[in-house]
Design a protein that fits this description.
- The structure holds two protein chains of two kinds.
- By secondary structure, chain A is an all-alpha fold.
- Chain A folds into two domains: 49 residues; 138 residues, no CATH class.
- Chain A has eight helices and two strands, in the order H-H-H-H-H-H-E-E-H-H.
- In chain A, a hairpin with a 2-residue loop joins strand 1 and strand 2.
- In chain A, helix 4 packs across helix 7, helix 5 packs across helix 6 and helix 6 packs across helix 7.
- Chain A is globular and about 45 Å long.
- Chain B has a single domain, classed as 3-Layer(bba) Sandwich (FAD/NAD(P)-binding domain), CATH 3.50.50.60.
- In chain B, helix 1 runs parallel beside helix 6, helix 1 packs parallel to helix 11 and helix 4 packs across helix 11.
- Chain B is globular, with a radius of gyration of 22 Å.
- Classes of the chains: A mainly alpha, B alpha/beta.
- At the A-B interface, helix 1, helix 7 and helix 8 of A face helix 8 and helix 9 of B.
């Protein structure tokens, strides 16, 4: 039962992800036949082979506002930063989270809205600026504070619990299957030399 | 409307229930096999996607092999302490796997025989304070033929270990060939003077009864095998049962209670299929195989004027003595690659049960688990100097993904006074059934065993070349709900005042109700329990078939 609606939804996610990338990158939406061909290419790409998308590609968001996306993207890049290998920002982890919130993980939307507000509140009080506008060490300091934060953000969820949630989702988006919109070009697997 | 009537109703199509259904259908009895979970298949439900295809908690859609919805339980460490509500969406829900095949669909397949001493801990060690341990009403020798039958019928690969219990026949399949981890571990164990061996696995090491040999993929524990090489009951005995034409499988069918006729004899079950209406299935014999939590839940929910406190519960024993074995994982970190990426994982074991005169019980060590990215970053411990996020975190996992070995250390657990699976007095699930209320705490008897085994594992890894080792703290009295190895909640025993079932698995004083799951085990062993559940299921099946032929059960 669960499977029967889960199975097509995977494809919808892939297709939707493809379409919004396509709309930005190639402007192909007006050409239905080319569309269909590309859809099957996208589905193949979703099932494993590497895609050719530019880094920091300015893809559209389905749930996050620009400010929210910038906050979450900077958080993910703190959790898995770039070093000699790309980090969570390059891997598109924020898009993984955005697509998840627009789909299967919709229950977490209010948590993210309130959690992001909390991160920026800490950021302003500690560093006088929005989180995404801080330099890397300033962001690290804010997240260290968030990790200890016992302030209730929503329901029974504290700032610390919000950090733990973003960390969990970042690991999923960086090391999980690329078909969910993160782990671009299987970067999370390639840095581990893992082949599924 | 006429009520459907069969010979046997089996409740739960897992490790034990699938076997009972097949054995009785093969004997010519008409059987209905219920499971509240779905039936999965390799074609539709296997995959290498950690986020969707795994039973592990990092599956973002919940557990792959059930429950499909947020089932709840209440839990407290001691009967008096305040309860908390745990959901099947949480990591610490007491669960084995709610689907056709039960836990055998997604388990690792470790298929040990218990040692003979395990069946008579009380005789061996005397009464143990704080424990309700009793000897089993059967011995290892009584169960040995059924272990053998389970190994052959299901398909277990392995080798007869020098430290293992007596066996009449070899395993039906040889062990899998050594992967790099095994090549690192075997010589190290021998240098330490130990007797390492290949652990028994419910996995085909060669083509076996129409199923292909394992292709050594790493997506094993937590996953449904993509080629049906894992010997789950869903791909072995259950299809055989269905082939007889005498067994009907009702998946996604919840059984609420055992029904009782006008003279106080159980005469079937009340169930519903999918979202249908509650109805009765009449059955002359009822076999409960729904797990250590769900079997007592159902007995306790079967109240009537003949059974005012539930079926089998005359002496207030149903649900008591629930416990599990104890375990801790020790990780070794190496300078060079120690893995070639092959599954299934476990390839080298050392058995320390009843070997050390200074340690009561003891346990077992074996390596492995699926080496997949999300499992590794979520379960491999890091040194204290490495944060749980940031540059060091990334660097640590990149460096050690292929350079670590995980040793699992199992030890004996004991039934503890106060442990119980009961019904919550208030909370009900979405179908209106009282939810399971679980009191559980590990008995401190396990702690010295675990500490000793973990020290052995540490020594083992260092001998194999590990630069450093890490393990999670050994909790002296682990404070958690029942895990995958839950057992003992409707135990077999000689005395009806301290047990629920007799030596044949039949509920004391109830002529036609039997048990065939982990709840029947009198105590845990120092290792994974599945093959013992399965051997017991063969034993119980034989008694039912014999009783049927003799006419005693037919009425």
């Amino acid at each position: 039962m669960k499977r029967s609606h889960l199975q097509p939804r995977k494809n919808i996610l892939c297709r939707r992800e493809f379409l919004h990338r396509c709309a930005v990158c190639a402007g192909m939406l007006a050409l239905p036949p080319a569309w269909l061909k590309l859809l099957s290419v996208a589905q193949q790409a979703c099932s494993g082979s590497s895609s050719q998308l530019p880094a920091g590609s300015g893809l559209a968001f389905h749930f996050f506002s620009g400010m929210q996306a910038a906050t979450v993207e900077a958080m993910t890049d703190q959790i898995i930063p770039a070093d000699q290998d790309p980090g969570a920002k390059w891997a598109g982890v924020v898009h993984y989270i955005d697509l998840a919130l627009a789909g299967d993980l919709g229950d977490f939307r209010p948590t993210y809205v309130k959690g992001i507000e909390r991160v920026n509140a800490i950021s302003r009080s500690l560093r006088g600026n929005m989180f995404a506008d801080l330099k890397f060490p300033g962001q690290t300091q804010v997240l260290e504070e968030l990790e200890r934060d016992q302030t209730v953000v929503i329901g029974k969820l504290t700032g610390k619990a919000f950090f733990d949630l973003v960390r969990k989702h970042t690991l999923e988006g960086f090391f999980g299957d690329p078909k969910y919109g993160g782990n671009r070009e299987s970067i999370g697997w390639r840095i581990l030399k893992f082949e599924p | 409307m006429s009520v459907e009537s069969v010979d046997v109703a089996v409740v739960g199509a897992g490790a034990g229930g699938g076997i009972v259904a097949n054995e009785l259908a093969q004997s010519g009895l008409r059987v209905v096999l219920f499971d509240r979970g779905r039936q999965f298949s390799a074609a539709a439900d296997s995959g290498h996607d950690e986020l969707s295809d795994s039973q592990a908690p990092w599956n973002r859609n919940g557990r792959r092999f059930g429950p499909e919805f947020a089932e709840i339980q209440t839990y407290r460490p001691d009967p008096g302490s305040p309860p908390r509500v745990v959901s099947s969406r949480d990591n610490d829900f007491s669960i084995v796997g709610w689907c056709v095949g039960g836990g055998t669909v997604s388990y690792q397949g470790l298929s040990w025989r218990f040692h003979p001493e395990t069946f008579r801990l009380k005789s061996l060690y005397g009464s143990i304070p704080g424990s309700t341990v009793e000897d089993w009403p059967i011995s290892y020798d009584d169960l040995e033929p059924y272990y053998e039958k389970a190994e052959y019928e299901l398909g277990i690969c392995g080798e007869a270990a020098a430290t293992g219990p007596f066996r009449r026949k070899p395993y039906p399949m040889p062990p899998l060939e050594d992967d790099r981890e095994a090549q690192v571990l075997f010589p190290a164990a021998r240098r330490l003077g130990w007797k390492p061996f290949h652990p028994p696995l419910a996995i085909t090491s060669m083509e076996y009864r129409g199923r292909a040999a394992c292709v050594r993929c790493p997506f094993c524990i937590g996953y449904l095998c993509e080629i049906d090489s894992k010997s789950s009951t869903a791909v072995t005995v259950i299809p055989q049962a269905l082939k007889t034409g005498l067994c009907s499988l009702r998946a996604q069918s919840v059984v609420r209670e055992i029904s009782v006729d006008g003279s106080g004899t159980p005469n079937g079950v009340i169930y519903r299929e999918g979202n249908g209406r509650w109805k009765q299935l009449r059955a002359k014999v009822i076999v409960m195989a729904a797990s250590t939590v769900e079997t007592p839940r159902l007995f306790l929910n079967s109240k009537s004027k003949w059974f005012p406190v539930g079926i089998g519960n005359r002496h207030d024993q149903v649900g008591r003595h629930a416990h599990q074995d104890a375990g801790v994982a020790v990780f070794g970190f190496f300078d060079s690659k120690v893995s070639d990426g092959q599954g299934p994982g476990p390839g080298c074991a050392v058995d320390f049960q009843f070997q050390n005169p200074n340690i009561k019980g003891g346990g077992i060590i074996y390596n492995g688990f699926s080496r997949t990215p999300l499992r590794v970053v979520n379960t491999v411990p890091r040194p204290e100097s490495v944060n749980s996020w940031g540059r060091d975190f990334k660097d640590f996992h990149r460096k050690y993904f292929w350079k670590h070995i995980r040793l699992y250390c199992g030890a004996h657990g004991l039934p503890r006074e106060g442990n119980r699976v009961d019904l919550d007095p208030e909370l009900r699930d979405e179908l209106g059934m009282p939810i399971a209320s679980i009191s559980n705490r590990a008995h401190s008897w396990s702690a010295p065993q675990l500490e000793w085994i973990a020290r052995c594992a540490d020594q083992f890894l260092k001998e194999a070349g590990a630069q450093f080792t890490l393990h999670n703290p050994i909790a002296l009295e682990p404070d958690s709900p029942l895990g995958d190895h839950q057992c003992g909640s409707c135990r077999m025993g000689a005395d009806p005042r301290s047990s629920v079932a007799d030596r044949t698995g039949r509920v004391h004083d109830v002529p036609n109700v039997f048990i065939a799951d982990g709840s029947l085990m009198t105590n845990s062993g120092g290792c994974n329990p599945c093959l013992t559940i399965q051997a017991l299921a063969y034993l119980v099946s034989e008694h039912i078939a014999r009783g049927w032929k003799g006419g005693g059960l037919r009425r």
